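Quick question, first post here. What does this chain look like in 3D?
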Amino acid sequence: MFNQGKLMQELSFFTELSPTSQKKLLDNSTFITVPNETVLYEQGDICSDILFLTKGRVRVTRQHENGQSVLLHYFEKGEQCNVNFTAAYNSAPAVGTAYSETDLEGYDLPASLIAELFVEDKAFQKYVFEQYVNRMEQMATMIETIRFNSLDERLLEWLQNSGEKKITMTHSAIAEVLGTSREVISRLLKGFEKEGIVKLSRKMIEVL
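> Answer (accepted):
Ran it through. Tokens below.
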């Protein structure tokens, strides 16, 4: 049987909240499942709800006017998206687009409730600020990597750190993560294949 309270406790801040705040979350949250490769919201959208993940991984990217995209951040189990939070909390256009990289499970919460908790409950406020600190650290590392590492070094590091021997992401999706074009990624991967680093096949990259 579905136990909403138990799953909600997987969100790190839940047990730190006051009993009143916990009840509000349980009464107003909607448990949802989202399939892989789903667009959760698009750049420019006004988000009315905020998603907190209990399972899965989401990629958030920003598209430039030239059509190319760059990775902003990922968010995973126990986290919420800062772009989603800011857009919903301030009723402002989202600065990026979110894609599910896996099947997702989580809680959809109305922005009005989140705004209320942010003001009323210090534990939730602390959680939100911690999320922003983590994102700033991630972005600082990303900027440092872009500034000092060549693109082939960044691609090789990304492949090695993916945790997968067989990667099913498209070249376009990898280009978004690394802030370049699909054509450049395809060219670099073909070079890696000649060097025996990867094996390319249709819709798959095998790391050797």
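Residues 4-147 form a domain with the Jelly Rolls fold (CATH 2.60.120.10).
Residues 12 and 159 are 30 Å apart (CA to CA).
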